[in-house]
Amino acid sequence: MGLSFSTWRAGGYANAAVPRAADPATLQQSGGQTMGTTWSLRFDNPRMLPLAEVRAAVESALGRVVTQMSNWEPDSDISRFNRAPAGSRHVLPAEFAEVMRCADRWATASGGAIDPTIGPLVACWGFGPEAHEGGLPSAQVLADARACVGWPRLAFDAADGSLLQPGGVALDLSGIAKGFAVDCGVEALRALGLTDLLLEVGGELRGIGRRPGGQPWQVLVDGDPAVAQRVALADMAIATSGDRWHRRTHQGRNWSHTIDPRTGEPAAHALASVTVLHTECMQADALATVLTVLGPDEGFDFAQRHDIAALLVSHGDASPAVRATRAWPAPAGA
Q1: Where are the alpha helices (DSSP H) in 220-266?
Q2: What pLDDT score was predicted for residue 252?
Q3: What angle do CA 19, 21, 25 make, to 5 degrees?
Q4: Of 267, 286, 263, which Cα lies nearest the Cα of 276?
């Protein structure tokens, strides 16, 4: 593909490219597993720091996010909050509070297209660690789940980072936390003195600095030849969301893992994928979720109003329909 590190598509992250013979010895890579997926790093290492030290820094940063915000860990901070008694208020760890500020901001701006209390609905539709088995939820089960959803009920205090557990609220930050994990990993690597790198966690990426030789890190957005575009990640992050992954099928109905908190139903529109560019991967991840829930028209208008760099790809009869916001970079050579 001629890419500097990896091929990333709106359909997911492809494995890291094999290093080229022309690459200098300082251009190194590492990777591992986290959050039920993988992480990969490509970086310039002029001081030849031990790879074990670099890897440990990334894994420690990712581990803090898991310890605080993983619904799959019964002893995580988020799991303990979800089990907490009604009326209790909880001061969150600093990282958790930062993610909640992001969630609260975009929940308010989008009228609830993203909602950190969506956990009961996610489970209702067969996703997450508390997934209900048995296919489609009944009307009563769905109504009960919807009654537990609504981020204003948290009475979130952004100043001290505290939340109210009103009773029955189950937080789910899966639409933000992975992007935040990328940001945490980047900061941990910066603390080691590394300034030129590309870090990926489960398909979300952030690049800082440059490749050796001065060229920017590059990724390929969407694998469909009709919409494929190389994008430079010069101190930028990129995240995607869409209906191509994590689906369920039951009694002839097929639905996505993207749940609209406003209706309690899986998002049902022609939008296939959304890709967002932002300086922070947490913000890109959250906004990709927002735009996916809003859909091709409302999402596009929202992105334009908020000056979001986004590429929206919708299903078409013959070929994908593609819309790029004015903040999205022009294709190379255009």
Answers
A1: none
A2: 53
A3: 75
A4: 286
**For 263-287, what is each residue's pLDDT tens digit?**
877 877 778 889 999 999 999 999 9
Rounded to an integer, the average pLDDT of 62-85 is 94
Bridge partners, residue 94, by sequence:
none
Cα 333 to Cα 225, 227, 329: the distances in Å are 16, 15, 11
pTM of the model: 0.85
Among 113, 101, 136, CA closest to 259: 113
Torsion of CA 44, 47, 52, 54, to 10 degrees: -50
* Distance, CA of 157 to CA of 170 (rounded, Å): 18
Structural contact between residues 180 and 209, judged by C-beta atoms closer than 8 angstroms: no
CB 281 within 8 A of CB 204: yes
Give the integer Cα–Cα distance in Å for 288 and 106.
Answer: 11
Bridge partners (DSSP) of residue 162 are 91, 157
Burial state string for 190-206 with b = 16 or more CB within 10 A and e = fewer than 16: eebebebbbbbbbbbbb
Per-residue confidence band for 79, with pLDDT thresholds at 50, 70 and 90: very high
Three-state DSSP class for 17? coil
